[in-house]
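Lab notebook: predicted structure, single chain.

Context: the supervisor wants predicted structures on file for every construct in the current expression panel, including those that have not yet been purified. This is the next one on the list. No modifications to the sequence; it matches the entry in the shared construct table.
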Amino acid sequence: MEKRLTEYAHGGGCGCKISPAVLREILAGVPGVPDPRLLVGFDSSDDAAVYKVRDDLAIVATTDFFTPIVDDPNDFGRIAASNAISDIYAMGAKPIMALGIVGMPIDKLPTAVISRILAGGKSVCDELGVPLAGGHSIDTPEPIYGLVVIGTVNPGQVKRNNTAQVGDLLVLSKPIGIGVLSAAMKKNIITADEYRTMLNLTTQINTPGASLADLDDVHAITDVTGFGLLGHAREMALGSSKSLAINYSKVPKIEGIESHVENGVFTGASTRNWESYQGDINLPQKFPISSRHILTDPQTSGGLLVSVSESCVGEVLSLFESEGFSQASVIGRVSAGQPGVVVLA
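Prediction complete. Output recorded below exactly as produced.
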């Protein structure tokens, strides 16, 4: 029997990211870049780098790639491309060009399968009118695919992850639980409806980010990916020197994931995430471990977490609704106090 695409990889999607704690240790020895034109670098753990070219133009650049999260080659390509392009929108920018990143076990995967992966990625670029202008490929033990994406934005409209303000409300644009569904797929217990949900969510690109850039009362944006909702909320909290309160009951969740987690279906990455940043998270007493796994669940091509003034939250929710993000919800609030994340039961 031919192996499934996910069997060639030790992890899948954004769940194969290096854990936050290990990544911090690695980057601790890498000096920053003292260039005033570099508006956003790696020091703030943001979604993309931003370089000011002139007063009305900045270049936004990101790279994102991972191992297969699904077995269908075309779907894998679409998900990986959507995930990478969404990072540009998370900065309030618009993509203008992409380059492919391809690492494939040439001795194991048929060239026809590899072609389908690349075709899936290109189809996403074509839908957005983003030229896929080239790239680089190597022979690797595991399948890896993703994109380098270049975008543009007015420097005054860049949306960072470390500029949340006291009194802001927190809006999450997509339900969480992608990692749980990927774990269910590996165990062959995912339903057809759950797979369609996973595919629809992971290929829904965060295009509203470009429109959010026009709103002055939108103070900070990040996307929720491999470190889970708590991990990316933590980055926003520490970067902004604020306390973020998240109401667990208000967080949109994919239908059925709570049952899966209660039955032991979750990713190893959720445990690694928690071990990496638990010191900055305040959970209620007797908070269920299953709920913690959901909040730390790695999201592949996850939604946007937006910090917005209360007076503008209705406009933000309407914007998400108009672009097909019907489950966008207010999940918490920003306040002064010890930087970190407080979870409300």
